[in-house]
Amino acid sequence: MAAKAKFELKLGPATREAFGATLVELGRENKDIVVVDADLSKSTMTYGFSKEFPERFFTCGIAEANMVAIASGLAAAGKIPFASSFSAFLLTKGFEQLRVTVAYPNFNVKLVGTHSGISIGEDGPSQMSVEDLALACSLPGFTVIAPADAVAASALVRAATAMLGPVFIRTGRVKVPVVYAAGQQFEIGKAVELIEGSDVTLVAHGLMVAESIRAAEALEAEGISARVVDMHTIKPLDREAIRRAAAETGAIVVSEEHLVDGGLGVRVAQAVAELHPCVMEFVGIQNTYAESGTPDGLLDKYGMRAREVAAAARRALARKK
Amino acid sequence: MRKTKDLAQLQAIARGVRRHIVEMIGAAKSGHPGGSLSAVETLVTLYFDVMNHDPANPGWADRDRFILSKGHAAPVLYAVMAECGYADTPIDKLNTLRQLGSVYQGHPDRRFIPALEASTGSLGQGLSVAIGMGLAARLDGKGWRTYVVLGDGEIQEGQIWEAAMFGAFHKLDNVVAIVDYNKIQLDGFVKDILELEPLADKWRAFGWQVVELDGHDIAALQKAFAEAAATKGKPTVLIAHTVKGKGVSFMENNPKFHGVAPTPAEVEQALKELA
Question: Residues of B with CB below 8 A from A63's CB?
């Protein structure tokens, strides 16, 4: 991608909407795709699939544990099941089932969590998922993905379907800025460098990618050259992109709409410690649950903005010297 | 393999399986003899008579599926599969149970035995997995059936009842659950820990066809599985009344032998009784 490409970052579809639309396309292409949901299809956007392919859609009622293990049985018998719910429920109520009936036998189940992070807004912390990446990444053999926009979500849902093995895809409720042009290619496990830079690298996933782009633009006005990397695949991590960022810019800021404990940040830090130690700063939810509010109000209050990313970059640069 | 409907032959196989179980767990010095011995006739009847499967071709797409949801009874499954002649379960290696590197893991693990349909050991999950398989068979218009053995203590898990509700609602008549109702769980008698009764009424209320029987009576098991196959529009559960530790006098109805291996002297005594 061009170094000085201008990002308009116009508001586009939510990643959950891209998931729902892509699921319908996949259903048309492959009759082995089946969907299980837990009474949230109109929110998770599996509703479209359920209308077009009612015989391949199973609502499990409000019973996530059962839903995940049913998906395991479907996969064992050769189907490609998508199991979907809010991330907060899918990863917690279904976690033991993910561990024993999906990860342990390494079955080909695709999990799509929606309403991730704090940006779901008014429903509040019981519905917000700020620990899902920590849980998903703890499962051996799992691939874990958090797309930044609708283009990425659609492409990565397709890539997840094409690969064999369990995948968790984290999507969000709210409309997010468009980062990618239609047709952008994605490879699972391969980060996308959106902006070149030499002073500091801003690594992010999900809606913090757009915030990191905005931060890079603000930093550029101050004469700071910030690289921006979309780490859409949290596991397996693109270690080479991290090594290069550490070696070439000497400072890394990781930003995510997730607890700083156990998210992308600690995974990047581990890679940096192993490959090329450098200064790091972290932007994320700090050891707390959020609250009700508008999505924008929450992102402001809990520090999930370009302002905090840029401030972290300045701190990192100060420490680097 | 030698499939048969003959009672005397099936009883002889069951006796041999019991000997394997005692020897394996004795050699391992740990394991769960009681709940393995209580499920012997159920598994022998399924694998040697009822189920369509081919040990020479474990990946056969149209095979019937079997899940041991009460995974701690792994020795009975290993012994039965070994007697069937699955290449993944060599009979001369049964006594390596629970040893490092053995295919005979403490609980069934399909990384080590690919012919297993599921990895189990965490209770409460097998019925849901079986239902997923039943849905897949129906979607493909296939006639294969799925059998899942549940422990009685296991069905205290809430997920079992989520699955029970779902299975009946979706009229999954290609799924058969068998409750190995041996009345004992780790900490003691089921009735003292969390009573299940009225158990048949519970399953009926959830919409299942219920057959209660003596789980050591092979003829009754054959009849019940035939009734399950003939039942349309709902899944069937066999409530198999069994004796924990069945076949070994000092293990029968003895909560101690839920999860304790017999000593060498006890193995010797048990094998005499099972001669």
Answer: 159, 162, 165-166
